[in-house]
Design goal:
Two copies of one chain form a homodimer.
Chain A lengths: L9 H5 L4 H8 L6 E2 L12 H19 L9 H13 L9 E4 L2 H12 L5 E6 L3 H8 L4 E8 L2 E2 L1 H13 L7 E3 L13 H14 L3 E4 L24 E6 L11 E4 L2 H15 L4 H12 L2 H27 L14 E5 L6 H10 L2 E2 L1 E2 L12 E5 L5 H29 L1
Parallel strand pairs in A: 1-11, 3-4, 3-6, 6-7, 7-8
Antiparallel strand pairs in A: 2-9, 4-5, 8-9, 10-13, 12-13
Helix pairs in contact in A: 3-10, 5-6, 5-9, 11-13
């Protein structure tokens, strides 16, 4: 009898399926209105523009665009990204940029580069599930730092760092999504960003700044990335084309110091040799034509009313007592329901009513946020959002009633 | 003073740059005739066909082709691959196939899934450098098994396995490139493949079969993949579109048992969520049109005369005493030079003469093959191959003379 499981590494034995990926499978049922995935709206894809772009790429660069590329990534693309980063206040050149196969690969690289089994890293409570999964796949211990309406609580962060250092535990990095945080939607103000850099400098620690959403901004002034205040090279910044062009292209990038960039490049060599050359050329040509900024404007114009519909439909259909701060950008609303509700168990009722979300616990390394859920507003049509909130309102109402009746029984 | 190096994981501290990647950088000097990389010929890329294919993909599937896909990969592509695998004698369906971002990612996944620090895996002497790099990045110990003209020596393999098991060391897998081996070019005959499966079954071990080249076949009958004889699920088979369509698309696949496929899928979720959806759709449509087999024929017709030119130019220009068995397929010639030559030190002379190769030691986990080198014949033009062999012949001649003169000094 074959027993290949005895061959698995310790990390493989511990790997669990991603909750979101599994949910996405359930929600492939076309009758379900899904607010679970972090998917851009398919209508936003610039298909017509891309047809011309790709024709040019094939005719002018076909022989290089279909060939292997360097591990660091296409020079023209890195140059264009560096110029945009400079406009955001990040002082960098193409040499400090690596093109990754999506931010998830950059997160995996961070995990591989820094985490020994048993090592500690700090993440938000709540935080992006893909980051948690990548870091856990290297058998690390993740400690959660609570957020408030201005993002990660730095008083608790510093306290936690001090406590760890006192016990001779070195936190390997602080993983943070400062702008339109996934899932909580909050934005860390500039002052707190500077304070965070002070902490990183003081304790000589690494910050991993994940910034997929800052360009999808509705009614809030621009805030500079944390990396813009990083004079000592303590920040690995990452962003992606997934939300502003196409997730199917699997293109993201990092900005980091010379030494960290060199080391990440070596790590990526063993991961996949190089990122997709063809889609790198496409993104590069799309930017060269000046189409990216126009396209981002179009996306913002498309998503802002969807956000508004979701907020007003919740108001219309949800029973009172829920809390949802209007997200000022990004793709998600974070809803916290009255006490007694468990969004994980409620999910089964929601599926029965053909509506889906991601439950809060999935984002919390300590299993908190059990009353919360993340709702995506970018993917669905306006009508689907209204109908979805109606269905969800019904599910919540029923759960609240069950809660009271079970309460009466208990009393 | 910042010292982020103290944050690195043990595996990151040990990571070294890939020799081949670094060589490729040197050889970007356009004056150097490089036979170093494993690059397809850019003239082989079906640019005109792809223009039509991509137009159809965008117009008919734009909204899904630019969106996130499932981790396992595009159903239509997996189905087409499964059908082709069946023709090669591998009994499989789409469910046992995963689409990876190049074979390198599949190799990294194998490393992540099976290798704890200090674990042992068995590889050919010589073996593919990218595999060695991926496995070493998980701090494993690689033991080399010598090859003969029929591939890996199974008597030594079995002896080695027995020795390890006696010492309570469990070899995690046997990594093997059975057809047009990289770099040695040899083909393992069917009888030896069956014997290898017998060994895997007897000791309940895993075989990782890497098969990028079997379709690039000139004058030798087809041999079934090892996977075709694998009735008990001991083989993870992998192949790629890099050599038969475009390496820039970063598309490869694995065929494995239900359990191994499920586990590799979980592992890949944390690596990059999903493989490039857009190029998956392109490859799928290219195959649907029946273009792939025609294209492979074209590649074989293009590479066979290049192989012949390389063989005859070596004969013309190389000093006597070298050994190179004519490769019957694939993309590489493996040359062993007379005693006293070190191809690693000779490389600097070669670069001075504007010609490049990969030295043999790079492929050997025990540092052997110091007199050998790998020459790629697919990338260069016919004229470049002839001129390159001429330059290389001169370099070898000079080195042989130096050797004799240094010998005389020593005597």
């Amino acid at each position: 009898m074959s027993n290949l499981e005895r061959l698995y590494s310790n990390r493989a034995s511990k790997m669990r399926k991603s909750v979101i990926r599994e949910l996405l499978k359930i929600t492939q049922d076309p009758e379900i209105l899904s607010f679970a995935g972090g998917l851009p709206n398919p209508k936003s894809f610039p298909i017509d523009d891309l047809e011309g772009v790709i024709q040019d790429v094939l005719r002018q660069h076909g022989k290089t665009a279909l060939q292997y590329g360097t591990t660091q990534g296409l020079f023209e693309l890195r140059k264009a990204i560096a110029e945009r980063a400079c406009k955001d206040g990040i002082k960098t050149t193409d040499e400090n940029i690596i093109i990754f196969s999506g931010s998830q690969q950059a997160l995996d690289t961070v995990g591989k580069m820094f985490l020994n089994p048993g090592d500690t890293a700090l993440v938000g409570l709540p935080s992006y599930l893909g980051g948690i999964n990548a870091f856990r796949s290297y058998e690390s211990n993740l400690t959660g730092i609570p957020l408030d309406q201005d993002g990660m609580r730095l008083d608790i962060l510093e306290e936690t760092i001090k406590k760890f250092l006192k016990n001779e535990i070195l936190p390997k990095f602080i993983y943070i999504i400062p702008t339109f945080q996934n899932p909580a939607g909050v934005v860390m103000p500039e002052l707190r960003r500077k304070k965070l850099i002070d902490i990183a400098n003081e304790y000589d620690l690494l910050i991993v700044e994940d910034d997929p959403y800052s360009k999808i901004r509705f009614d809030v002034p621009r805030v500079k990335p944390i990396k813009a205040f990083d004079d000592e090279g303590h920040v690995i910044y990452m962003s992606t084309f997934s939300k502003i062009l196409s997730p199917g292209f699997r293109l993201a990038w990092t900005v980091a110091s010379d030494e960290l960039t060199r080391r990440m490049e070596i790590c990526k060599q063993a991961l996949d040799l190089c990122t997709n050359t063809f889609t790198q050329f496409i993104a590069s040509e799309f930017m060269r034509r000046g189409s990216l900024d126009l396209h981002i404007m179009k996306i913002c114009e498309m998503y802002e009313p969807k956000r508004d519909i979701m907020m007003s439909s919740m108001k219309k259909y949800f029973p009172k007592g829920y809390v949802c701060h209007k997200p000022k950008g990004g793709m998600f609303a974070w809803v916290t329901l009255p006490k007694g509700i468990d969004t994980e168990t409620m999910f089964l009722d929601a599926i029965k009513e053909k509506v889906a979300y991601v439950h809060g616990k999935a984002f919390c390394v300590d299993g908190s946020c059990g009353r919360s859920m993340r709702l995506n507003f970018s993917y669905s049509t306006d009508e689907q959002i209204d109908e979805g909130m109606k269905r969800l309102g019904g599910v919540i109402e029923k759960n609240l009633k069950n809660r009271s009746s079970s309460h009466s029984v208990n009393i």
